[in-house]
Prior knowledge:
mainly alpha; 3 domains; 3-stranded parallel β-sheet; 5 strands; HTH lysR-type domain-containing protein; WH_DNA-bd_sf; LysR_HTH_N
Amino acid sequence: MDKKDKYMNVKQLRAFLAVAQYLSFAQAGERLNLSQPALSLTIKSLEEDLGGQLLTRTTRNVSLTPEGETLLPLARQLMADWDNTEELLRQRFTLQMGRVSIAAMPSFAGNLLPGALKTFRGRYPRVNVAVHDVVNEQVLEMVRHRRVELGIGFEPESSNALSFTPFYMDRFVAVVSTESPLAGRAEVSWAELLNEDFIALQRPSAVRLLL
């Protein structure tokens, strides 16, 4: 590898910080679970990458050079930022904290979703949930354009590369006059409904499309 392509890495910085803390290769190696030869090679590699000596070693003492003193606070900050970044991402991946956006049809958002969100909130109190109450077509569009992580709605005839999982069964009920010939019927077919005047939701409602 060309010299200009060499960069210090996390392993090297951890090794440097351990030696700087204990001023002893033996204690630093024990702290890092590294043998002294392996630790010495790691420090040597860091010094070669940076182009100068960071530690002064004698048979009895280890001390920081002026360059090592300069690197020390910077290395501490770099490792703190690295550790914080790792922890933040682990928390997000395990749903310990973060934000989830959901697009749901009004019928679900207003009825079943609140109970589900209460359960979710109890398990993951540090995760914020944003709910978008929109019609089915907007649910699909928001998922398709990755504006939300999850959408709840009807599966269209053409899924357009979206993945659908059956979640719940919705029940349709026909509300008719007591004088209607359909009154008192346990079930009514779509064909029978189409022969009647009915009130439908506005376009582009998925329920309207079904009718």
